[in-house]
Design brief:
heterotrimer; A alpha/beta (319); B alpha/beta (397); C alpha/beta (256); A: 319 residues; B: 397 residues; alpha/beta; Fumarate Reductase Iron-sulfur Protein, Chain B, domain 2; Rossmann fold; 3 domains; 19 helices; 8% strand
Chain lengths: 319, 397, 256
């Protein structure tokens, strides 16, 4: 009873990054408890993906045509059946649209406790502990993971997904799914993101420009950097008003509230109207020549280096 | 509650203000729409609005949302030859109908929601309202901790309490009150928004809620008069609070400081900037004929070496900074509809008369005009300072 | 369609949060509790649905203290019935497991077609109320919903995935849905309407029944994360700073 399970998240045939974060966490915990790490892979014709889950000792595949896309009730039934049978010590789910549906439902059905929004875990002396971020990241809550079984949802940040990508072939086992008749939810269709603009509120990496960027031509420089970082460009009001960027890219009071992993503010002074839009960026870095700019009061890192020199230099180094 | 026809609406307008009846005498001259800074972008200027109501096109009126461009600057009401109370009567009442109907730009909903929940439009913690006085060399007593009667109850206002730029104005005024040896106190966490701007967005119920909280708080203390650096608070305390049975003397800080000019003037030792122009806030000047035009100018002239120059639009013809009537909370909407910011016109006027400093006397103005200085590419050419800041600089360097 | 909306009150994050002397709980003495934002979205979605399809909306909360204004505001927005569950001082905090159990008790006597609540609340630690409740009621649950429709007599919930992708999930029969965002931001309702609701409407008070909680998550310690008051400044030439930033991005897992 020292096995750790990770419920792998697949969306449209692709293993989501959070799965590797969970594998990284799970690997550490399983090793700490001298137990095994299992990955539960639910889907249809998805066994091939098992080879990417080498961080686990074994991958348990559940295959059924009705499991081709995420179907809340069907997936919950499959998950709880497997957990009931194997009774692992701790089961990790993504703190995501898929993972939380499953974890909370399974917790209630199995009568196991669930710890949500966990960032880190610890395994010491056979005891497992969780550390969770709550109240908008303002509070860290910690405690023991109750015996004998427990569920947890994992947020990115505590473990590197890279550590969960291990080039090894795990053992693959097949679990037969429980009967899926009478399932009341049915996947109908995907709705593609609107062909229009990206939704900056959902972007993990934002390079945001303010008036300090001086003119429209320099926006292209910043776009180059955003592309290199795998993110998109957003802006503060003056930049939007000048129509250097479309309104959809506006961060702040009259624009969007964003919650990126990285918010790189280029030439933004940090007026309260703007900062209203970025209350909880995980990492905020500010580039502004004015050392007194209020943005430095809220950013985690800052530099007064000239953005017009730094941005191309950074883009080049990333590439 | 909500009205169903043009005629019902007209009745509501008429009962909203003492001179409401005058709306029936509209000449359809169009002066109102001509002077309105956003008249060009409005589906209905005040004149066109009255025409539509006379034609019973209530549906058409409700379909348009450009009433939210109205910054309640009183320019139309001021020039109306019939003296129809357009701003307080017609336009604010139409905004009420828009609110009831749910046609409210999102940004404005946020500010109103914040005002109702937190007692300030900025959505800041009410407990932190007096935080600006912390780590500040000048003592700013909070009345709750200071039971003795005071001469002056200083009503600081939302922006003076919370907005980092306007807090600087509050600190300047604190220094002046201190050096003048005024016995004063603030309400601190007991104060909430004066509600004036919320009222001019049509949210009179919210105004009343806020006003009652303030009058209750003020009722706990003994003071001779209220002083405020906020013309909107001044206007509300002077003209709207009495309707709720609260009738106390209120002075704008420029009025109060001028009364103490004999003691203030000798303290003004440092030479000020050479060329200064003054922007008349709507709510000190035109609104309700408050007519406070000379006090700030006389104070500015008391600063050694300061030359006061006038912009083409001055006194009752001043152009609104765009912050009134909810404009402070509608920047995105206004830009989308009008693609013009009146504050930028104003900056161009100030630059045009060769001013080094644009003196202001309203908490909405320093942030808005400073933004406009940058937006018009005049950074470093024109500073924006409250009259209190210029006086404090002259007195303390 | 008859819709029930569940509202939880949570600490207002506008205020500084403190930990009490036990170090395992929020200091609630100066806490302001406000309705959970996503629950307000759930209410908005319910009212939009009612406006579109007819039916009723019932809003339920437990007595967290100052909840009446929220309930009257719900009435002013178009809620037909508001219920306050009493019997305990819930302002001291209540786990989601227990909250789900309490709601379960009330819903037993309140047949409805759809139960909406916010997908999550800012102070969640032990699961999401909606998902826990669904399981207790034996109903299907879909979270992260941004739109609800009825097609051929069945509910269709639009579930939001990252990156702008959505999926439509069809549901037979009643369900609990966790709302991530209403189709439109929650409406502002003018104060005079709230006042009117206070005069005309009444709040049904209902005693909380026995709430059985089977699995509880222990919280041993709460703490405030360390925050630097000011940004850590990186000095040097453009190339130096770029190198330092690159290192930082890699360390923080922003860049692979």
């Amino acid at each position: 009873m020292s096995d750790i399970w990770v419920v792998i998240e697949i969306l449209r045939g692709e293993v989501k990054e959070i799965s590797y974060t969970m594998l990284a966490a799970g690997r550490q915990l399983a090793d700490g408890l001298k137990g095994k790490l299992s990955a539960l892979l639910i889907g249809h014709n998805a066994q091939a993906l098992a080879s990417t889950l080498g961080a686990a000792d074994r991958v348990l595949c559940v295959d059924h045509a009705d499991l081709a896309e995420f179907n809340p009730e069907a997936y919950l039934r499959v998950t709880t059946a497997a957990l009931q049978e194997h009774s692992p010590r701790l089961v990790l789910f993504g703190h995501t649209a898929i993972g939380t549906d499953l974890a909370c439902g399974a917790a209630c059905r199995l009568k196991w406790p669930v710890a949500t929004s966990c960032r880190t875990f610890a395994a010491a002396g056979g005891e497992l502990r969780y550390s969770s971020l709550t109240c908008g990241g303002k509070i860290i809550a910690e405690g023991p993971i109750p015996e004998p079984n427990c569920l947890a949802t994992v947020m990115p940040g505590g473990y590197k997904a890279e550590a969960g990508k291990v080039n090894k072939t795990p053992a693959v086992e097949t679990l037969s799914p429980p009967a899926l008749d009478g399932v009341r939810t049915r996947f109908k269709q995907y709705i593609e993101p609107p062909a229009g603009d990206v939704d900056i509120a959902k972007q993990p990496i934002l390079v945001s420009v303010g008036r300090g960027i001086q003119n429209k031509d320099n926006v292209a420089l910043v776009e180059g950097l955003a592309k290199a970082l795998g993110g998109v460009v957003s802006g503060s009001r003056p930049v939007i008003d000048q129509e250097w960027l479309p309104t959809t890219r506006l961060v702040g009071k009259s624009g969007k509230q964003v919650k990126p992993k990285l918010y790189l503010a280029v030439g933004i002074s940090g007026a309260p109207e703007h900062l209203e839009g970025v209350p909880e960026a995980e990492l905020m870095v500010a580039i502004n020549t004015d050392a007194k700019a209020p943005i430095f009061d809220v950013a985690h890192f800052g530099t007064t280096c000239d953005a017009l020199k730094l941005v191309p230099a950074l883009t080049a180094q990333i590439q | 509650m909500s009205v169903a026809t043009s005629y019902e609406f007209l009745d509501k307008v008429i009962s909203a203000t003492p001179d409401g009846e005058k709306i029936r005498k509209c000449l359809q001259c169009g002066t109102c729409g001509g002077i309105c800074p956003y008249g060009f972008a409005m589906d209905f200027s005040p004149r066109a609005l009255i025409a539509a109501l006379r034609a019973d096109d209530w549906h058409g009126v409700l379909e348009s949302d450009t009433i939210w461009l109205c910054a309640s600057c009183f320019a139309c009401a001021h020039v109306c030859p019939t003296k129809i109370p357009l701003t307080r009567g017609l336009l604010a009442t139409l905004k009420t109908e828009m609110l009831i109907g749910g046609s409210i730009p999102q940004e404005l909903q946020t500010a109103l929601g914040n005002s109702r929940r937190y007692g300030n439009a900025l959505g800041e913690s009410p407990k932190k309202r007096a935080d600006w006085t912390r780590d500040f060399t000048i003592p700013v007593p909070t009345l709750a901790n200071h039971k003795d009667p005071v001469d002056v109850l200083w009503f600081v206002g939302d922006y003076g309490s919370y907005h980092p730029r306007v807090q600087q104005v509050s600190r300047a005024l604190a220094k002046l009150l201190y050096v003048l040896d005024v016995k004063f106190g603030i309400l601190g966490a007991e104060e909430c928004s004066d509600g004036d701007t919320q009222a001019f967005t049509g949210e009179w119920g919210l105004f009343e809620l806020l006003a009652r909280k303030n009058t209750k708080a003020m009722g706990r203390y003994q003071f001779k008069e209220i002083v405020t650096a906020d013309p909107h608070a001044f206007n509300a305390l002077k003209h709207e609070y009495p309707r709720l049975g609260f009738n106390r003397t209120v002075k704008h800080h420029t009025q109060y400081l001028l009364e103490h000019a004999d003691r203030l003037a000798p303290l003004l030792q440092n030479r000020g900037p050479q060329r200064v122009t003054y922007h008349d806030p709507c709510y000190l000047g035109r609104a309700n004929d408050n007519n406070i035009y000379d006090e700030p100018r006389r104070l500015l002239r008391a600063i050694p070496g300061l030359e006061l120059v006038e912009m083409p639009h001055n006194r009752e013809m001043s152009v609104c900074c765009g912050g009134g009537g909810g404009g402070m909370w509608l920047d995105g909407f206004v830009w989308e509809k009008a693609h013009v910011r009146t504050a930028e016109w104003r900056i161009k006027e100030a630059i045009g008369v060769g001013a080094q400093v644009l003196a202001v006397a309203c908490p909405y103005e320093a942030p808005r005009f400073e933004d406009a200085v940058k937006a018009t590419g005049n950074e470093g050419k024109l500073a924006v300072k409250d009259v209190a800041e210029l006086l404090a600089e002259a007195a303390f360097g | 369609m008859n819709i029930v909306v569940l509202i939880k009150f949570v600490p207002d994050l506008v205020e500084d949060l403190e930990i009490d002397a036990s170090t395992s709980l929020l200091d609630r003495s100066f806490l302001r509790l406000i309705p959970n934002e996503l629950d307000e979205h759930a209410l908005e979605e319910a009212i939009l649905l009612k406006e579109r399809l007819g039916g009723t909306v019932t809003a339920i909360t437990v007595d967290f203290g100052d909840v009446d204004e929220t309930l009257f505001t719900a009435v002013a927005k178009g809620t037909d019935r508001v219920v306050k569950i009493t019997g305990e001082d819930f302002s001291q905090g209540v786990s989601n497991e227990k909250l789900a159990a309490i709601f379960q008790g009330v819903l037993a006597d309140l047949p409805c077609d759809l139960i909406l609540t916010g997908t999550q609340a800012v102070d969640d630690l032990d699961g999401f109320v909606g998902a826990l409740l669904a399981e207790r009621l034996g109903l299907p649950y879909v979270g992260y919903v941004t739109k609800i429709d009825v097609q051929d007599g069945k509910l269709v919930a639009r579930k939001e995935y990252p990156g702008g992708l959505n999926a439509d999930i069809e549901i037979s029969g009643p369900a609990v849905l966790g709302i991530q965002a209403a189709e439109k931001p929650p409406r502002y309702v003018v104060t005079s309407k709230v006042m009117e609701a206070m005069k005309k409407a009444s709040i049904d008070e209902q005693e909380a029944g026995e709430a059985s909680v089977e699995a509880e998550l222990p919280v041993q310690r709460m703490s405030l994360p360390e925050t630097g008051a000011r940004a850590e400044m990186i000095e040097g030439s453009a190339a130096d700073v770029a190198a330092a930033l690159l290192k930082l991005f890699r360390e923080r897992g922003v860049l692979a």
